[in-house]
Amino acid sequence: MGFTMNKTLKLSLSALGVLTALSANAGISIVDTEEGNFSVAGNVELNFNYQDRESNESGDHEFNQDGRVLIEFAGEKYTTGGHYVGVKAQPLFESTGAVNLDDAYFEFGKQDAWAIKAGRFEAYDMFPVGLDVFLEYSGDTSNELYTDGAVYTYQMKEARGRGSDGQLMYSQAFGNLYLEVSSMIGDRSDLFHEGTDGGSYHGQTISSSKDSFLIRPVIAYQMGDFSVAASMETNLISDAIVTDQGVDISDRTGYGLTGNWAKGDWSLNANVAYMDAVDENNFSAGANALWKGLGVGYVYANNEYENKQISGWAEGEVSSSTLYASYEFTDVLEVENFSVLLAPTTPVFLIT
User: Fold this and answer.
1) C-alpha to C-alpha distance for 125 and 146, rounded to whole angstroms
2) Can you give the pTM of this predicted structure?
3) pLDDT, tens digit, for every residue of 160-201?
4) Cα–Cα distance between 335 and 154 in angstroms, integer?
């Protein structure tokens, strides 16, 4: 759904999606001594997906199966002074025939103190949704794209990681206090990419781009069964992504707050995120609960659009509500680490 009018738009869309995931994990510790360790591990995930979409314009039914095999190679070397160096690589072999990469990084530091990590990885999760379920949003993960004209459920993940051009992160632990400063370096114009048109934002084509430098500091504190974390993310390079009207759309700053309470079989998460972008403000809030294998959650998002720097686009608000549930069957057929996850979701969008 695209915005092509200056007037206020009204449109509702509902969809039902069901994901059934089969996963199995295994690992072999080849070396495990006081001097270091080396292990080979991995997991297999198969997904059976069904989506039933309904809108004012057309209906769309999707039924498919996908999945991947992940192989992990990890090793660490320790010194007598408490320092260490480590490396991890996780190639992904997808059922489509493609070969990708999950994590691949090098790190060094002091155990239970500080660390420096470089490569490809994900930083602190500021918008956890509970169990490992996939919620299909525009920009729902750190690598997902911003789809121009679609509801954007911002989750503090534009600078979280797993970018194609490299990352660097410093972290430090002071007892119950944890500090982290992560960065992403390189071309980020692909965040707005759409097909072969070179990307667009509020209907305007991206005309030029250069390497960005995104930073994402996090501060977290653990208080018994409760933890809380605050973060922000922003791009420090001006004119990194410019439209054909000469507007710098890389000027984006996000803020986030998340809290968790966990005790026994219970785990509760609450998240808030806010993005200040060009002619656009995005607010998201979510809450979810886990009890043993059962999980339920709710995510609300609101987008506000203006016609100040970029003219000729829509003006108004878009809201999105997503209710989801999941249940994990563990040790299926009495096989350790073989799980089946059922996860239906129902998002509803309203543009006013």
Assistant:
1) 19
2) 0.86
3) 988 778 899 999 999 999 999 999 998 887 777 654 345 788
4) 38
Q: Which long-range contacts (CB under 8 A, 24 or more apart) does 174-178 make?
A: 176/221, 176/222, 176/223, 177/219, 177/220, 177/221, 178/218, 178/219, 178/220, 178/221, 178/222
Which helix (H) or strand (E) segment is 267 a member of? strand 266-277
Looking at 126-211, which runs of residues are DSSP E strands?
167-174, 177-186, 200-201, 204-209
Apex 197 CA angle, 191 and 200, nearest 5: 45
The tokens for 302 are: 């609101």
Q: What stretches of the chain show up as alpha helix (H) in DSSP?
A: none
| Separation of alpha carbons 162 and 254, rounded Å | 18
For the record, the structure tokens of 173 come out as 């632990």
pLDDT in tens, 123-138: 999 999 887 666 766 5
> Where does the pLDDT of residue 155 fall: very low under 50, low under 70, confident under 90, or very high at 90 and above?
very high
